[in-house]
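Let us work through a complete example step by step.
Step 1: write down the sequence.
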Amino acid sequence: MIHTAYLTTSCRDPGPFNLPQRHVTFNYITDTSKLILLHDSDILHGYGTLYKVPEHLINIRYETEFKLGECIDYRRRVFYVELAHEPISVGSTCPWYYRKNIDENRLPNVMYDVECICDNCIGQRSGRTCQKIYTYINVFRRIGCLNGIYDYSSIVEPISVGCSCVRDPKPIKTATQNASTALYHYLCQNIVGTEEHVKSIRMFNTVRDNLQNNTVITSGSFGEGLMMRGSDLDIMLVFKDIEVGEDTHTCVNANKTYFTMELEDTQPGFTKLRLVHK
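Step 2: predict the structure and record it as tokens.
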């Protein structure tokens, strides 16, 4: 909402009332909604060319009209009321109400625009919000006072005409996220190696372990495909004549040694072993 102080300088409208010739800018924008504005346009999204008008000559104020209640009231109507004969502003997933847009420094002084009633879309999953749809029209605005007479110019002004349910924009990456991404790329290029390099080392370890009749498992960082300077080599040996399990009633093979796991009073990832048979 734009609010500034009223103009205090003594000035009057030109008389007889003689406004400059109305002209249309930006490919004849009058009553057509423009959701995407060209980058080389002087029209700013949601603001038009109001930035060209001195701040003290913008005094927009609003008067609410045709509002049936708050968001919760509209939710009830959408889900429980027959909406076949109600306007789209009431039955929409993003309902809106109309209001007077008033500014004595503009011609016309009074226009109608809309305000979204709900922040989030009715009946939609999270991550969707209600946003205004704008149209851009040419109006006459006071841009100054010369010799006690107001000077007018044609200005493109945004008017909200409805509300639409849109997906929330993707969050902008924080400085921490950017630093993490930069660190990842540095590690890949200078220390750890590329993704393909890591996959190759993992495949090499798997093949070598299989050739040793699955009695050795390469583990640790090297087992995960990371070959860094100064890193140690972790090897797990597999004893096929020893079995460990939770069930104490496991069928016993006289040629094997059996242990059961006791998890009480142990740290995560650790266990106590109780010898059952040797």
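Step 3: interpret the result. Helices lie at 71-80, 88-91, 175-190, 195-211, 220-223.
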